[in-house]
Design a protein that fits this description.
Elements lengths: L1 E5 L4 H13 L2 E6 L10 E3 L2 H9 L3 H6 L6 E5 L5 E6 L17 E3 H10 L7 E5 L3 E7 L4 E5 L4 E4 L1 E4 L6 H6 L5 E12 L2 E2 L7 E7 L3 E7 L4 E8 L4 H13 L2 H11 L7 H6 L8 E10 L3 E2 L2 E3 L2 H4 L8 H17 L8 H19 L5 H5 L4 H18 L2 H4 L17 H13 L6
Helix pairs in contact: 1-10, 1-15, 2-10, 6-7, 10-11
The protein binds flavin-adenine dinucleotide and 2-acetamido-2-deoxy-beta-D-glucopyranose.
2-acetamido-2-deoxy-beta-D-glucopyranose binds next to loops.
Length: about 425
């Protein structure tokens, strides 16, 4: 099977790995960027996605790249913690539900780890600075593309793993198939120098006018600020929308600076570092929903098909699981069978779980971004109560939210299961 994957993010390499190792597929992965994008902040891998990472033999590598975050804290403007949710409580047998999972990694580190796990595979070829310029044919027996380097090539399957604003999706699907759900929330992410006041907690600070600052540790001696804002009035909304669409980095930074000028807490120090930040990333938070995920031999996976927003904390787990399920269906094809059926099966098997994850109650972003100090006070009280409840060992034990617990029940794909047991026997220090 010849497979073309557009996008070397998270979903792309996971899919390439399983198709090559499972059925010896010849896989080409195109990446628009010159080199692997090292950007992105702390993400966690929970539930069944962690099972896939283990089956790929990458548990030790993941552990090595731990962000070192010890838990999540809500703090006041003076930095005083109001409520703390540690990742692990010493002496308590069960884990306390916490926004910090046991498996925290930077997005860039995860992307690199998956790339390293596939780059030496002779079935897999990465091409950087190359994109699909045009999908020329999508027929009964092949899909033909013209690449940006002029090559015209036929494949059996074309996979759009090129993220939230997928170009393949745009070319191959009707506009009516796509729904973009705008969450009216904007985030700026970057990396800042660490100073003596910093620590290894994920600190979340709420301030008035629906503004939030989050600070998370990384394993490189720097710190990862995230500023988020929900504009309130129509005028404000228009201003943020415009700056977001402009892709003008300087304008985005200057709006953020203007907006957070009186935010308090560590805002001033962090914003000073914005001028020299190399990895500034601005995001309009919106969900991607598609009526159908494939058309003929072209299929979408990960954010391209179902970006759930950072509000769910599930973008990466969905990308990993989606790629696995797609691989599972493709490796189950009979010789010579048209893959379009497998692409539909992937959608049937995975769509209900995606729908559940994407079903973020519409009030959630607003609750996380109170407008007034009164609202912030209420939120802090709620977190304080929750933290008191969960840190009572007696009660915590009744909420056994183990990270390893499966949230999505994987179908049994014989070839992938064989591959997993083969990998397991060759990786030495697996955690039991
Ligand atoms: C730079 C970056 C930073 C991010 N930071 C965060 C974060 O801090 N927190 C968070 O929760 N989520 C973040 N995300 C989103 C997160 O990575 C996804 O939710 C999730 O991992 C889904 O992965 P994916 O493989 O579907 O898409 P992505 O990880 O978005 O990967 C898509 C890849 O496709 C490439 N690409 C785009 N267009 C084309 C094209 N036309 N041709 C070829 N390749 C193309 C991109 O360069 C990228 O490498 C970030 C994404 C990116 C790209
Ligand atoms: C990652 O580091 C945190 C903080 O030190 C720790 O609680 C957690 O157990 C670590 N995770 C793994 C998988 O070792």
């Amino acid at each position: 099977m010849r497979v073309l994957i557009s996008g070397a993010g998270i979903a792309g390499p996971v899919l390439a790995y399983h198709l090559s190792k499972g059925i010896n597929a010849q896989v080409t992965v195109l990446e628009r960027a010159e080199k692997l994008l090292a950007q992105g902040q702390n993400i966690d891998i929970r539930g069944t996605a962690m099972k896939v990472i283990r089956e790929m033999g990458l548990y030790d590598e993941l552990k090595k790249r731990n962000t070192t975050e010890i838990g999540c804290q809500f703090v006041t403007g003076k930095g005083k913690p109001i409520a703390s949710f540690p990742v692990w409580i010493e002496g308590v047998e069960t884990k306390c539900p916490s926004p910090t999972s046991e498996y925290e990694i930077l997005r860039g580190d995860l992307a690199d780890m998956l790339y390293q796990a596939t780059i030496h595979d002779s079935n897999i070829q990465y091409k950087f600075s190359v994109t699909v310029e045009k999908v020329l044919e999508n027929t009964e027996d092949h899909v033909k593309v013209r690449l940006s380097n002029g090559e015209e090539i036929e494949y059996d399957v074309l996979v759009a793993a090129d993220g939230q604003w997928s170009k393949i999706r745009k070319q191959c699907f009707d506009e009516e198939d796509l729904q973009v759900v705008d969450k009216n929330m904007y985030i700026g992410y970057w990396t800042a120098p660490r100073d003596s006041s910093d620590n290894d907690w994920w600190r979340i600070y709420h301030t008035t006018k629906s503004r939030l600052i989050s600070l998370r540790p990384d394993p490189y001696g720097t710190i990862r600020p995230m500023f988020s804002k929900m504009p309130a009035t129509e005028e404000e909304k228009e201003k943020w929308r415009k700056v977001s669409r402009s892709h003008d980095r300087a304008a985005q930074i200057s709006l953020l600076k203007e907006e957070f000028a009186d935010a308090g807490y560590e805002a001033d120090r962090l914003m000073k570092s914005l001028d020299t930040a190399e990895d500034f990333y601005f995001q309009a938070v919106s969900q991607i929903r598609m009526k159908k995920w494939s058309v003929g031999r072209v299929v979408c996976v990960g954010d391209a098909a179902y970006a759930p927003t950072p509000l769910t904390g599930m973008g990466t787990p969905l990308a990993i699981l989606g790629a696995y399920v797609l691989a599972g269906e493709l490796t189950s094809l009979k010789k010579g069978e048209n893959p379009s059926g497998a692409l539909k099966e992937y959608e049937n098997a995975f769509k209900p779980f995606v729908a559940k994850i994407q079903d973020v109650p519409s009030f959630i972003p607003g609750v996380m971004h109170p407008k007034s100090s009164f609202g912030i006070g209420i939120l802090h009280t709620v977190f304080w109560v929750l933290c008191k409840i969960f840190t009572q060992p007696f009660i915590a034990r009744k909420f056994p939210e183990g990270e390893d617990e499966e949230d999505y029940k994987l179908k049994e794909y014989p070839i992938l299961q064989q591959l997993a047991s083969k990998t397991k026997s060759t990786t030495t220090s697996e955690k039991a």
